[in-house]
Amino acid sequence: FVFKFVFLFSPHTDSFRWVKDGKEFRRELFESGTLTAEVKEELRSYQGSYRCYVANELGTAVSDLAHLITEPIPTLAKEKRQKTRSFEEGESAVLYCNPPKSSVTPKIHWMDIQLRHIPLNERVTTSLDGNLYFANLIVNDSREDYTCNAHYISASVILPKERISISVTPSNSVVKNRRPQLQKPAGSHSSYLVLRGQTLTLECIPKGLPTPEVQWERMDSPLSPARVRMLKYKRWLQIESVSEADDGEYTCTAQNSQGSVKHHYSVTVEAAPYWTRRPEDHLYAPGETVRLDCQAEGIPTPNITWSINGVPIAGTDSDSRRHVSSGTLILTDVQYSDTAVYQCEATNKHGNILVNTRVHVVELPPQILTADGLVYKATEGQTALLQCHTFGSPQPKVDWEIFNSGPALANAKMSQTSDGNLQISDVSEDDSNMYTCSVRHSNRSISAELQVLNRTKIVDPPQDLRVLRGDDAVLQCKYTVDHKLKQPTIQWKKDKHKITSSANDDNEYTDGSLKITDVQMEDSGIYSCEISTKLDSVSATGSITVQDKPGSPYSLGLSEKKDRSVTLSWMPGAENNSPVSEYVIERKEEQNPEKGRWEEYRRVPQDIRHLEIHLQPYNTYHFRVRAVNGIGMSEPSPPSDSYSTPAAKPDMNPENVTTVSTDSNSMVITWQELEQRQFNGPGFKYKIYWRQASGSSPHWKESSASNPPFIVNGTGTFIPFEIKVQAVNELGVGPEPDAEIGYSGEDLPLEAPSEVAVTELNKTTVLVRWSPVSMESVRGHLLGYKIHLRKKGPRTHSRRSLPMQEPAADRNRVIVVHGNKVEMVVSDLQFYSNYTLTVAPFNSKGEGPHSKAYHFSTPEGAPGPVSFLTFESPSETEMTLRWGAPNKPNGVLTGYLLHEQLMESINLPLDTEFTLKGLNPQIQYHFMLRALTAAGDGEPIEIEGATLLDGEPPSAINIEAGQTSVNVSWVPGERQRNFAFSFRYLKKRGGEWEESEKVNSSQAFYQLQGLTPGVQYHLKIHPGNNSWEFKTAGPELHELPSSFATQGWFIGLISAMVLLLLVLLILCYIKKSKGGKYSGNAQSTSHSFLEKSMFKNTMENIHPCRG
Questions:
Q1: How far apart are CA 428 and CA 338, in angstroms?
Q2: I need a surface site. Which of 13, 413, 1050, 1073 has the fewest CB within 10 A?
């Protein structure tokens, strides 16, 4: 080994020496303070406590104690291979590690033979001593390669222990669950002594089924999340850097559905000595008084001792100028000989600490070491320290003054430190000024300027956010700084660790905000932003809680396996910052094709981790579990092992056993089939039993079928039978079924109702009665009666108002009377009509014979409204009304009644037209017209109208022109008769007027077509004097200038010449064909001469036949 001692004393170090266990160990070393072990000597001889002394002309300094422990590298003793340990499912177990002992505790890793870590959770955890604890065992815990690996970090050694094998067999115990008990620590109370600054770990490892949950509490105050950490799935409670405030009582409670157990921990905190005040090195002038304050704390209270140059004061010559009071060493009237190194040492049972203090007695003139004219800057509320370092012996005394304000110490906020600096607390803008520091009794002084700036503030601090995983989160941190300061630095921290961002990150904004994109669970934590300038800094904290659907449950296990049930257990996954509210158990059945997919079986509260599930025989089941929280449902857990139940006899028989017979000589038995999972075994079928309900044979007939329906033939018509259906498989029959009454097939009823009678209730309603048929004639279940009502037509009718043809549905009606009722009210009959009705019984097979027809008539009634009512106005004082006869005259029409408020009612004959004369054109008339019969007035039909005025063409029109057409629209005159007119139009550059077809004034729209694009037109309405202009859209088509080639006379001349030339050619051809001198008679000759003479003058220059 090598011991080095570094002591910053002076460049004139003379010698080093070492003391081991209070005795001189080596001679003095003049070159260095390094102590090296001799190769020849055994290393263990060097174990002990060491202290180094270094000396020069100014004194001797002493080091703290250094403790050296020597031990060999840990090794494993040879171990025997352990036998496989057997356990029953649900029991607890401990696998012991027992690593080799060492002064340094090794780190323990439980792994398998392939060096994969054994998964740890609430059920499986490790203790501080390295043992592996199982709260309860499941079959999957069986393995042969549990290996404890002890890692000695300082020795760089990993020691694997001998493999441990355990076997877990399924439990057949009646006990379902186990009460919690503590595997570690033992008993109900334990005590712990921990030193200040150390780490305290309390462990609470329970066993039980279901796996117990652990809760920690502090008896005298709540646990502080900032001080306490829960480790190993809450099995460990850890406090780092323990302080006296952590002294107290703690409890751990382990509980499950079967009960709870509690353990109490008494924690006592003591402390090795630590400094509360240290003496400082200083220069002193002869004659001054030296006061060296040395204060230390610890539990128990440490003892303070003083030494001079490494020699205890108690061992030196007594000096009246030197005494110790409450740990303070006081030297009066010091001399040059008092220059030395003084040691203060604090000691209690937990250790000791030592501090060296140099006292140098010398006489030097005063000097100011701080530069003149320094500028100090501070922000409001800070404490400013204006320096005035001096040097000299004795220590110079200084005074501070404020420019134009006098002594600084007159201000209550200002004080002077022992080394001459001016301290100004809670500075404000009023403290900005010039300050002067002067050495008393000398002419030495310096000046300093203080500038007070605005304090840096965070105006929009980060908040506590709850964010869904995958979303973005933005933490605000808006601030203000003094304009005289440069842009501050912004530092974000997460859980007190700095957040570093690369140049490509978009996480931070210029206003100080922090954006985290696509947040994940690991982004949850406490965030703080710190705004720092050269003068001050300010920080604020917020938090991000990332929430997500819960993690999938895991470690599904099946226990207490029985013929009809099994207990499913699982371990909860991560809650992801949203508490789990319930678990969803899903199952899949292999034997049932309809259930061959995962389906929800049941939901249970979040505190249940074990559930007994009832099963059907002869099936194979798989299970999985989902967790639900406020965010949503987790992914399913890995499926459990499959579990198959043995076959059994059927538990139930089919329901809804009944008959649905349709054939009159057979019986059809049907039932609601059982689901396949209710078959309970192989070879499933149904056994059917039947016998007559009141027959001569008491014996049951039976048969079997794989599914409904089942048909029994030769039963007769509508015979009652007792029937029952029983479930059967290869292992036996189901429960004894109850017998039901069924019937063979029905047939049509044989008997018709008699004594049919009709009683008039009002003009359109009658009461129909009849005598019932005998039940034997029904040959089935009597469902009721049907009344067939037929309207044969009106009794008589008016010659001038023939009724309209009625639909068949109105002429023929069927009224259904359900059950055994023998009377029925029939309403909505037509007035003045002849009816015939019959009554017939019916069952499910159909209707039986009808009763004898019964004839009756309805009386005459008031007519219905006329079918239509219109009017025309042939002049301004006349109006002609036209109407149609009522569709429902309801009797013989006698005429019509016309009523108008401004005139007397008029009785009209059976005509359908009437002209009113002498009307006022300024009045709107309201007419009501009724049809009349002997029974009364019919319903009125109303119409409003006024006479029409003479029509006239429109005087105002709207024109919308296109390229080849124009749309003309107008508003027809109100109350005007139709008026015919036409449009006349003319091109503005010339041409003839063109006229449209006749247009009616009521049209309100007309389109003129065939126009020329880009041309200006005149437009008139005929008759009328109004005119308008418009221009068609598009480019204007310009006409070519007129020439003789386009004149009519020229074209006629050319046409005549062409015709004459054609005739001449024909004549030449004839002449050549005849030939000879005497080829024609005198008449022909004369004709030829005339032809020549006729065309001589006009064709003398054309010679097509010459030669």
A1: 46
A2: 1073
Q: Spell out the residues 6+ positions from residue 587 whose beta carbon is closer than 8 angstroms to its own.
A: 598, 599, 601, 613, 621, 622, 623, 624
pLDDT digits (tens, 9 = 90+) for 224-268: 888 899 999 999 999 999 999 999 999 999 999 889 999 999 999
d(CA 202, CA 213): 16
Over the Cα atoms of the chain, what is R_g?
62
**Structure tokens, 153:** 């970090």
Residue among 1001, 995, 1008 at smallest CA distance from 955: 1001
pLDDT surpassing 50 at residue 1096 = no
Q: Strand 164-169 and strand 85-88: pairing?
A: parallel
Which DSSP string corresponds to 181-243?
EEEES-SSEEEEEEETTS-EEEE-EEEEESPPEEEEEESSSPPPTTTEEEETTTTEEEESS--
Buried b (16+ CB within 10 A) or exposed e, 791-829: beebeeebeebebeeeeeeebebebebeeeebebebeeb
Single out the residue of 429, 463, 453, 455 nearest to residue 538, CA to CA. 455
- Residue 696 is which amino acid? S
Q: 628: number of CA atoms within 13 Å, CB side? A: 10
Q: Which two tokens stand for residue 748?
A: 């049509």
What's the pLDDT tens digit per position in 914-936? 998 888 888 888 999 999 999 89
CA pair distance 621, 615, nearest whole angstrom: 8
User: Quick check: 471 and 519 in contact, CB under 8 A?
Assistant: yes
Q: How far apart are the C-alpha atoms of 625 and 635, rounded to whole Å?
A: 9
Per residue in 553-575, pLDDT tens?
A: 998 999 888 999 999 999 999 99
Instruction: Name the residue with tokens 């607390």.
Output: 425
pLDDT for 176 beyond 70: no
Position 83: which residue type? Answer: K
pLDDT at 811: 79
User: Quick check: 444 and 368 in contact, CB under 8 A?
Assistant: yes
Q: How far apart are CA 684 and CA 705, in angstroms?
A: 10
Record the tokens describing residue 165, joined without a space. 């094998």
Instruction: Give the Å distances, CA to CA, from 543 to 1, 492, 550, 575.
Output: 49, 12, 20, 18
Query: Which of 788-792, 877-881, 1076-1080 bottoms out in mean pLDDT, i.e. has the lowest?
Result: 1076-1080
Close Cβ partners of 551 (under 8 Å, ≥ 6 residues apart): 573, 574, 575, 576, 627, 634
pTM of this prediction exceeds 0.85: no
Rounded distance, CA 162 to CA 1064, Å?
142
Q: Which residues of 312-347 are buried (b: 16+ CB within 10 A; e: fewer)?
A: ebeeeeeeeebebeebbbebeebeeebbbbbbbbbb
- Could you give the CA distance from residue 993 to residue 985 in angstroms, rounded to a whole number? 6
pLDDT at 1053 over 80: yes
**Residue 446: predicted pLDDT:** 94
